[in-house]
């Protein structure tokens, strides 16, 4: 029974650490850029866009496709940074143990 109590305490500690980590991830912001800084997209840790900055020089009526491509590239760069940050935070919590395929925490 002594081990069960210890396990329960560890589980509660892990739950507290998980809640704290989720809050840190939610508050984190990561900026992706493209076009040498012409487009910047900032996402939070839940992949919500927090800001979008576009240099007016990319707006050319004849080349809207370039502006669209730069926005997509910036978003994808920011998403990659959020993924990496979230993975690093989870690694801190799990002690570097990889989670099984398809299991993604904290979401």
Which labels suit this protein?
2 helices, Ybab, Chain: A, three-stranded antiparallel β-sheet, alpha+beta, rod-shaped, 107 residues
The termini sit apart by 33 Å
- The global form is rod-shaped
**Name of the CATH architecture of the domain at 30-89:** 2-Layer Sandwich
CATH homologous superfamily assignment of the domain at 30-89: Nucleoid-associated protein YbaB-like domain
CATH topology of the domain at 30-89: Ybab, Chain: A
Helical stretch tally: 2
CATH class of the domain at 30-89: Alpha Beta
Outline the low-pLDDT stretches: none
Mind summarizing the main beta sheet? Answer: 3 strands, antiparallel
Q: Into which percentage range does the β-strand content fall?
A: 15-25%
Q: List SSEs in N-to-C order.
A: HEEEH
Biggest sheet strand order reads 1-2-3
Tally the beta strands: 3
What is the mean pLDDT? 84
Backbone CA Rg: 19 Å
Notes on the protein architecture:
With 107 residues, the chain is α+β, with helices and mostly antiparallel strands. It has helices spanning 2-27, 64-94, and strands at residues 29-34, 39-44, 49-54. Strands 1-2-3 form a three-stranded antiparallel β-sheet. The two termini are 33 Å apart. The relative contact order is 0.16.
